[in-house]
Fold these 3 entries.
Entry 1:
Amino acid sequence: MEILKKPILTEKASALTEKSNRFTFKVDHKANKLQIKQAIEKMYGVNIVAINTMVVDGKAKSRYTKAGFVSGRSPKYKKAVVTLKAGETIDYYANI
């Protein structure tokens, strides 16, 4: 099971990083806070102070096509907001 799927690089997440040293990741739906903490500390070599997790509901999507009106949902996902120790940072692009 791959716990960390990808970092979330939105304007809101970037503002959170600049303001309070918090980083946001999309994680596996079955992962708990301890597993997320171990995965991030192993991958990035940082010390984590706190982790907040939440399940984000998928948005309703609809469009009109030649076949008619099509509606559905984007999938839900689990998000983890990680607070790091003061002075530490995560470089998302170091592992590429």
Entry 2:
Amino acid sequence: MEETISLKELFQTLKKRLALIFMITALATAASGVVSYFFLTPIYQASTQILVNQSKNEQQAYQFNEIQTNIQLINTYSVIMKSPAIMDKVEAQLKTELSEDAITVASEKDSQVFTVTVEDENPAQAVKIANATANVFQSEIKNIMKIDNVSILSKATSGEDPSPVKPQPVLNMAIALVVGLMAGVGIAFLLEYLDNTIKTEQDIEKLLELPILGAITTITEDMEAAGPSQKQSYTKARGETYGA
């Protein structure tokens, strides 16, 4: 006989394992909060914007092809920005070692402006690296590309009370809560699936595929002290009988 699981049985399983589900969810959320607040190093971010644009005299009009060329050059400039030709000079100027992953170059679609973003454990250091990178790039690109079409649109600054961009404890804890809840539910159903013990008459009927003719219930002290009429009220369906 094909075994089916009803929605009621699913809810009963969740109800029975509710404490386990809650414990796993709480542990996952708490662990994420502890790691985020006490073990992960805060990372700060600073950004500077660079404009790619050929200088023009007042009599000269902007040509569409020149603008498109400047936009396409941004892809090349993004590679040059993170190359040793620029990074080595920035490191020498700041007297520090830089990771290539710490600097990100991004541009908006169809825009002549691209943004240089730096991440560092020290917010002041992130600002210094971003501005130094922009200055060195503006100076060196003239020799590398033999063209002077780069200007710094805005310099990186640091606020009075900068906030780290990562980790994000609240987001991490929210993710951990969802993952913990899913894990708890999964473990609850797994334990229920692996539990092959017989607990009720229905389990016997389901296992043997035979009808239950009778059952002997546990006789309590109250039932022993009760009279015949009261004992009759304790009798269950399916013709259950009591043993001495």
Entry 3:
Amino acid sequence: MKAGIYARISQDIAGTELGVTRQQDDCRAEATRRGWEIARTYVDNDISATRSKVRPEYQRMLDDVASGLIDALVVWDIDRLTRTPRELEDVIDLADKFGLALANVGGDIDLSTSDGRMMARIKGTLARREVEQMSKRLKRKFQEKAEKGEPHGYSPYGFRRVPTLDAGGNIVGNIGRDEVDEFEGGIIREAARRILDHESLRSVVMDFNERDIHGPKAIAWNSTILRQILMRPANAGLRQYQGKVIGKATTEAIYPEATYSELVALLTDPSRKSNHAGPGYKYLLSGVAICGLCGGLMRRQMGKTVVSKRTGNSKRQPASYNCAMCFKVRRKQDDVDALVTGVIIARLSMPDAIDMFAVNDTATAQKSLAEMNAIDAKLDIAADQFAEDIITAAQLKRITARLRAARVTANRSFRAAQPQTTVASLVGGDVAGKWAELPLDAQRAVVLDLVSVKIMPSGSGKAFDPDDIVVQWNDHKNLAAVDPQL
């Protein structure tokens, strides 16, 4: 008989293929004992027989049986061939149609007989039961680990796995705990700070790639990876299980829970532009400044060459901010940007600016965070009550809508009570120099936070007049106390 050998192992963590090599050796010995000629060998290493993942060598083996290249098959045991009764029936059908002989090391199953098929089915059923029992044990084990706050799998980016030691310095158990990696943890902290300063994911990613900072398991960063990392509960020392935070972790925190909550709120905000919304604003006051005539938003307009109908002379008009609604108000972009930037830098250079932005409303922030935690707990209780048929779907919907609205309000209060980190980083020292180093996204965020800019109409052909640009400080900042224009 022309025999094929099929070998498989579910996990080969070390990548040495020793498991499948031992199976092949035993199967060759069994084929030799039976006097079968080995025609083909099929090996699926590090692939489960119970998942939907395709086993390429298994499929090739079935095709070779159907084409007549092999008429016997040697496996170490039935569960190496398959662990699902459904797949086993496919093999039995091939045996009926093509006369396939099947041998397993240490046993003999003849699929051409009813007794042989019965024994194969019994072995397949037992293998399936063992898989289900193993899955149940593993799920309970993983849940227990999660409830204890212990890590699972490999250390994620930003951490390194260290052993757990007792008071005498001896290693306890084989699980260990995750500590913050000094370099990678610093990268995550930097990204978090910059995102909370309203810098875009894309700009942070581009900067990391330009600085040759390798991403997790890849050379280059992208916005999706960075967003996923920043929203990991583990960064705040929290343990997640099946997509839900269930408590504190043994993992060392990269940043506080408050920072994690603020990042999640910011990155999941529906008003935040998606990756498919096109590029963001490229100029300081586009979509920020408003028209003093109609109230429409000003947009940046490229400079163009105009030809005088009277003289025929051409003149190059500079880039400008133009009203996108009435099209009747236009000002030179460089002059407006310089004026608004100068006003902000001058005010933040005053001595009282340090005290103004060095503090935040800690009590309000803590109260708002407690409200959000309480609302989350109520949402969990409502979900449990619905699952236990204590409340109806309509009641759950009404409860959820009210609680989520309250959470949005609490979250806004929490974010408003946080220190204005971008502005706080500007005050003191060389404000102009620090402003120049800020990315455009952050500069725009500062402008939006501090002032409103209105560009008033003026006669055609007049020189730029600073008085036509009205800069008003936002009411929640007592910045106009010294001089309304500063």
